[in-house]
Amino acid sequence: MTGLKYKRILLKLSGEALGGATGYGIDVQEAESIAKRIKEVHEMGVDVAVVIGAGNLWRGKQGLERGMDRSTADYMGMLATVMNAMTLMDALERMNVYTRVMSAIEMRAIAEPYIWRRAIRHLEKRRVVIFGGGTGNPFFSTDTAAALRATEIGAQVVIKATKVDGVYDSDPKKNPNAKKFDKLSYIEVLNRRLEVMDSTAITLCMENNLPILVVNLWDNSALISAVRGEAVGTIVSAE
User: Fold this and answer.
1) Which of 57, 127, 149, 228 is the most exposed, fewest CB within 10 Å of its CB?
2) Using an 8 Å Cβ cutoff, are 143 and 212 in contact?
């Protein structure tokens, strides 16, 4: 593990990461691409845990706009995250990376129930752990689930995977003059309302002094550079 700045990470993926070009459904080829990047850092000696969203399969906002109950919509999203977790698990295990899916919502036939000490034991045994089911509670996002699980397992950083190379003051796809930030404080993110993670997740990271690193996962070398502590993406911390 020589040359590593982060020896245990929590990788936060959006559901759209598995959606391919359209961002919807499950693209097995995209799952394999993500699994390949995870395998590379795992083989460097990094303990890897993953939280994945559900936006490729279900968006609760659509249900809410039609009058759906918020709790029902959120629970449906939690179930969708388990489908995504299983997809990524399958891709990793086909690459000979031992993987466990742990769900905050009990479904013993397909996933282990989330137990804090068991999750840590899996990581100690060099298994990739994928957390499904969000926090297990409605009204909380998978961003918050990522911050919570990262804190519980003693991760040294939350790596937020995006399709841009960091955090900007405006959408770089729409504004060619958008300014990229190399470093930000938690307070700056909250005050500027920058879309790094939701405010609950940012606050939880701030209270536990857990840095957030925003990187472009689709840059072949970004994740490796991140765990080595090289200048990549945007770091959000107390400094």
Assistant:
1) 228
2) no
